[in-house]
Structures are given as structure tokens and as C-alpha cells.
Design goal:
The protein is α+β, with helices and mostly antiparallel strands and about 250 residues long. It contains seven helices and eight strands, in the order ααββαβαβααββββα.
Length: about 250
Amino acid sequence: MITPTFKLTGLDAIIKSLERTDKQVRFAVAKSLTLTAKAVQSDLTTEMKRAFDRPTPYTLRSTFVKSATRDNLTAVVGIKDMLPAKAAASPAEILGHQFRGGGRIRKNLENYLIKAGLLGSGEFVAPGTGARFDQFGNMSRGQVQQIISQLRLGIDPHVWTSKSKRSQRNIAKAGRIFWSRGGVRDAHLPRGAWIDMGGSTGLRPLLMVINRPSYRRRVDIDQIAAASVKRNWDRIFETALVDAFATAR
């Protein structure tokens, strides 16, 4: 029997060349995935500006990108789910209903009202006509603090308003805030926080008790990502691949 014998020369050089090629391709893919993810993030932020009413800088900074690497060819775009310093909830928890629909989480003020026995476990509050708003359309922090103070809410309600002349002057200036329990006791006022501004302004509803609000999805991340990838991937990958081989060592 004759057994054919082959002798390959330069095999080590070929293997090294292929390894270098694979290395450069993986580098190009990782770079392309990361740049495409950043393009998705940019498109997502643009859509948030369009879909949300006066979004705060905090809201617009709530997205993140996790870069791909040569060893992990996966890039991630999403909403931050880590708690910022001294925050009670993460951006993903606060804004989640905007991206998936459904109910929102409770605000600190609502938690305080529940702890004080003024709200039931299935109830929320909505601003009334006596509410003041900031430039982003949110209830002003100053007025929220006034509510907490005058209704003696919070972790330690005893640190709030006193009967001092200064405290009473501040209340008179800001408006006296009280809670109506509705029903027989306060039949003429629906349940909620009310503010008495005095004079011709008189009583105004500040916080009205409502059932758990439900929201429709306002931003479709999957759809935005798919459109952005389709629009950007080919161009980004072609450029990255050319650069990878041009700078190969």
C-alpha cells in the first residue's frame, strides 16, 4: 500500500496570520457594536425629548451604554437600574412605566401620606389647581416641603412646623395647608390636601386622591434600537474594519 505523505511549510506563519486576522475582525466588531449602541442611545435620548413633556436633565441622563469587547461581542443599551446617591429609586424604577406602560412607582410624598394614615395602600395623589410647578412641569420642591411640613409628614414629623410667630408668618405667606378626609366629616371638600390662600383666592385643591394611575408606553426602546441599527450598522462596521486592518501590527 502506498500512503500519500504531505509536508506543509510555513504553517506557523499562516496560523499566526489567521490569528491576527481574527483578532482584528473581533476588534472591529467590538468597536462597531459599541459605536452602534451609542447611536441607539443618541436616538433614544432624542425620542425622549420629543415624547416627554419638558424632560429634566436627570431623565435625559438616565440611559447607559455597556461597551462590547473582543472577548465579549455584546453591547447593551438601557435605562440605569442602579440607585444614585441618596435616591430612593433608580431611573429604571422611576421611568419604567414610560417604556413599558402600566403603573408608576410611588413618590416619597405618597409614601409619607400612607405612613400618616391619610392614603390607602392602593391610592395615589395628583396635583390640583393650587399646585405650583417648576420649569419641567413637576410640582415645585418648595411646595412639596410645605405640604410635608404643615401636614407633619416624613420620617420625624416633630421636626417640622411649630407655633412660633416666624412659622405662622411663613404659613400665612405660603398658604395654610390641611388635609380633608372627605365623607361626612368634610363632605364639602373631596379627600386630599387643600391650601387656603386667603383673600379673593381662597381655597384651592393641592393634592387630590386618585386610584393607581395607568400609563401607555410612550417610548418603544426595541423599535428605536432596531431602526437605529438598520440605519447605522453597515457604515460603522465598514469603517471600523478598514481602520482595524490599517492599524494592525
